[in-house]
Amino acid sequence: MTANPFDLTGKAAIVTGASSGIGRHFALTLARAGAKVAVAARRLDKLADLASEIGGFDGRAFPIALDVTSAASIRAAVAAAETELGPLTVLVNNAGIAATKPLLEIDETEWDRVLDTDLKGAWLVAQEVARHMVRLGNGGSIINVGSILALAAAAQVTAYSAAKAGLHQLSRVMAIELARHGVRVNTIAPGYIETDLNRDFLQSAAGQAILKRNPLRRAGLPADLDGALLLLASDASRYMTGAVITVDGGHTVGL
């Protein structure tokens, strides 16, 4: 181990859903810790801005167009990342969407869109990256971004909750199968983390009512996830696989 077990210098990572929110923040955090980062999402224009920001502190980022619902897009993106940055040793499987609607109103198209992105898409990306890790024999760390809604129920997020619960269990199965190849698979389960997408809701009366049930009485910030991310991405977690790290201000404890 290095003197600093959280140091990611020399590691190559790929982050999905990196164009905004938590994914964007994760890419910056990994780059600041020394990793070369392939930033992947559907919108290349936003990725170019992110890559420029990372380059501004002498980090290295490689923007890649990626649709996690397309196996062909995933294969091309992972191959391009490996060609540009070298063997991938870290995957942050972050891409995801939600549909907030009552159970009796969500339709099949909306259900499929969420499951295809949040569960099937995560599986496809993890499978492809794992194939590269196994083929090259260097091991690695796969970090799936789950949710506290995989651990506790809330109304009007049926598809999202089902997808994230499936992702948590998928992570455990992957951890068992990939351990012999030196590939670790763990999950971060964030609570309510404030981003541009949900800031207005969290500041509304309904959002404030949710946060009042949180023992720390506030929403999380993307930076509150950095400790879990750097732990799982680095050699500091070399004896961890199949774990779920909940970062929610105690929200699930208080439910």
Features:
255 residues; alpha/beta; 7-stranded parallel β-sheet; 9 helices; globular
Task: Report on this structure.
The structure is a single chain. With 255 residues, the chain is an alpha/beta fold. The protein contains nine helices and seven strands. It has helices spanning 21-32, 44-56, 71-85, 108-136, 158-178, 199-203, 205-211, 226-233, 251-254; strands spanning 12-16, 36-41, 60-65, 90-93, 140-145, 183-190, 244-247. Strands 3-2-1-4-5-6-7 form a seven-stranded parallel beta sheet, sandwiched between helices. The longest helix is centred in the middle third of the chain and has 29 residues, at 108-136. The protein is globular. It starts with 11 loop residues before the first strand and ends with a helix.
Record the SSE blueprint.
Layout: E1 12-16, H1 21-32, E2 36-41, H2 44-56, E3 60-65, H3 71-85, E4 90-93, H4 108-136, E5 140-145, H5 158-178, E6 183-190, H6 199-203, H7 205-211, H8 226-233, E7 244-247, H9 251-254
Helix pairs in contact: 3-4, 4-5
What is the radius of gyration computed over CA atoms, rounded to a whole number of angstroms? 17 Å
Strand order of the largest sheet: 3-2-1-4-5-6-7
Write the element-wise H/E pattern from the N-terminal end onward: EHEHEHEHEHEHHHEH
Separate helix tally: 9
Mean pLDDT: 96
How many strands?
7
- Oligomeric form of this entry? single chain
Q: How large a portion of the residues is in β-strands, by DSSP E?
A: 15-25%
Q: Distance N terminus to C terminus?
A: 39 Å
Largest sheet: 7 strands, parallel
What class would the helix/strand composition place it in? alpha/beta
Give start-end ranges of low-pLDDT stretches.
none
Shape: globular
Give the helix proportion (percent range). Answer: 40-55%
